[in-house]
Amino acid sequence: MSIFLNDIIYQIYVRDYTEEGTLSALCERLDYIKSLDVSIIQLLPIHPIGKLDKLGTYGSPYSISDYEKINPDFGNISDLKKLIKECHRRGLKLILDVVINHTSKDAKLLKNHPEYYLKKDGKITRKFEAFTDVLDLDYHSEELQKYMIDMLKRYLSLGVDGFRFDVCSLLDKDFLKRALTELKKEKEDVVLIGEAVNSSFIEYVRSINYHCYSNQEMFQCGFDALYHYVSFDPLLKFFETKKIEDLLKYKGALNVENYTICEEGFIIRSIENHDQRRIASLSDVDSFIKSVFSFSLFTRGPGFIYNGEECKNSKRLNFFEKEDIDFTIHDKNYSDFVMKNIRLKRRESNKDLHLSMIVDSNKKTLAIKNLYNDGHYEIGIFNFEEKECRVTVNIDDGEYIDLLTDKHYMIKKHSFTINDPVILVKVN
């Protein structure tokens, strides 16, 4: 097994993580990262960024000009090798974000191999006009497939532990099966994560006559874990409206997500990341923020934390610019809460988490039951009311202990009062 249910992925943008914005400076922060008890570091793309039609001052890290090199702002291959070595010395895995659906408009690959690119009416193009700084690749080319697989293997040979594939649902299915199979032969325990896309985006892409693949199809290609985006749209809507009907739609989408993936498939609930708002910006009420964060780590699948999330950062980073992350602890109570959730996620027993299922609950609450292979279960109840509420939840009456606070709850007629989220285990 390459990735476990008790793993936590920590996503880092090198430019913003330190004042220097380099791989060498990141090495000096590894003890801090290790202290968070995360297990996998995922770097945003570290390759040179295209200059033609670039966005902002620095351009998007997802507009890559050369897969063979490291962004000179970040360092060089030797710096990457040192980072890998220092991660491994601390028991951390390091994975790279690979962007192989498209390149920048001035990419080395375009200059040397224009035949690798998507064409329309004989001209190189892209599927989506809104992405103005990139051009799309066309994986019907056998030579392109071989080039990309060889490129990924070279990074494995440096000691990289795996990859996160950007917009994997847009990549050619046959290519992905071939690539992931070959990577597993190269490194048996390689970590393979896919950024599956939103259900609304799948519908849109298919409506304009391009392929866009489902979670099930992506798992069949060989991914260990996928982002939760297929169920994400109604949750984003709920964060905007705070209306119970949108939360109910999310519960339905979560059920569909749960029961339409293979049993071995893992879902990463990366609610906060480089593409999304900070969790701390979703509400002025701590109980709401805590509930979103706790839920993001509770369900079956590896956990995910975006750099600075642990410090309750509320400012969304603009990764076209240089914006240093504030790692100051302004709210000790919240930081302690974050670490408590991390420790619960990292328990060895979570490797045996069999199923996360929705439990009926009233008001703006979300109740999840985690079932384990040994027969025991835990109930997470997440309060989105933005105030204390009397929750009625479809679980057995009796005495429970909250694993987050050690507080005891006596539940009668399935009803009790909560403010902050709770993770309950029944007292025998």
Low-confidence stretches: none
Q: Given the structure, what is the number of helices?
A: 13
Mean pLDDT across the residues is 96
Q: Helicity level, as a percent range?
A: 25-40%
- Class of secondary structure makeup: alpha/beta
Shape: globular
Q: In which order are the strands of the major sheet placed? A: 11-10-9-8-3-2-1-12
User: What's the multimeric state?
Assistant: single chain
What fraction strand? Answer: 15-25%
Radius of gyration, rounded? 22 Å
- Total strand count, please? 20
How would you describe what is shown here?
By secondary structure, the protein is of the alpha/beta class. Helices cover 31% and strands 20% of the residues. It is built from 13 helices and 20 strands. The strands form five sheets. The chain has an eight-stranded parallel β-sheet. Helix 6 (142-157) runs parallel beside helix 7 (173-186) and helix 7 packs across helix 9. The longest helix has 16 residues, at 142-157. The model has no long low-confidence stretch (mean pLDDT 96).
